[in-house]
Amino acid sequence: MYIKLPDIYPYDLNSQFQLDFPNTSKQDVWNEAALAELGIFPVVMVEQPDFVMHEQSVTELAPQQINGVWTQVWSVVERTPEDKQNLTEAQASAMRSERDRRLREECDRINPMWWQDMTEEQKLGMKAYRQALLDVPSQPDFPWSVEWPANPL
Q1: DSSP designation for 24
Q2: CA within 20 to 30 Å of 52's CA: 17, 71, 121, 124, which one?
Q3: 2: closest CA among 29, 23, 24, 22?
Q4: Are 78 and 56 in contact (CB under 8 A)?
Q5: What is the pLDDT of residue 108?
Q6: Strand 2-4's sheet: what is its strand order?
C-alpha cells in the first residue's frame, strides 16, 4: 500500500500511477527513492486492533509518519447507545433465525413414522434438544455468545 502526498491514500501503483504520470514507465521509478521524488511512499501495514464489535467500532485513519516511516493508523471508538442497541437487536434477530432454522430442519421435520421407531432414549434426547434450542435466547451472553446444543441423533 502507498500514499501519494499530499493526501491520496490508498494509492495503487498498478492503476493510478499511469494516470498520474503518463509519460513515465513504472519500471523507470520502481524503487523507493525514485517514488519518493514523485511524492509516493510505501505505507507499513499495521494489524487492526482488537475491539468488542458490539461496543466499539474501528476505523482506518490517514497514515502518519512515525519515526520517518509512513504507517497505517487505526482508531477505536465507543459506539453510541443507539448503535449498540441496533447492533444487539440485529444480532439477536440473526441468532433467533438460526435457532428457528435448526428447529425446522432438525426437529419439526421428524416424520411420525420415524418417531415411532425411535427408542425412548432418542425421543427424550430430541425433546431435550428442542427445548435447549427454544432456550437459546435465555443464555446469559445472548446474542453475542451462543452455545448451540448438539443434536442427539
Answers
A1: S
A2: 71
A3: 29
A4: yes
A5: 81
A6: 8-11, 2-4, 40-42
Pairing of strands 2-4, 69-78: unpaired
Q: Count CB atoms within 10 A of the CB of residue 143.
A: 19
- Residue 40: alpha-carbon gap to chain centroid: 31
Nearest to 37 by CA among 56, 22, 19, 24: 24
Cell of 111: 416424520
- 73-112 b/e (C-beta count within 10 Å ≥ 16 → b): eeeeeebeeeeeeebeeebeeebeeebeebbeebbeeeee
What are the E-state strand segments in the chain? 2-4, 8-11, 40-42, 56-66, 69-78
For the chain (length 153 residues), average pLDDT per consecutive 10?
A: 92 86 74 88 95 93 94 96 95 97 88 86 93 97 96 88
Cα–Cα distance between 132 and 126 in angstroms, integer?
A: 10
Helix (H/G/I), strand (E/B), else coil: 60: strand
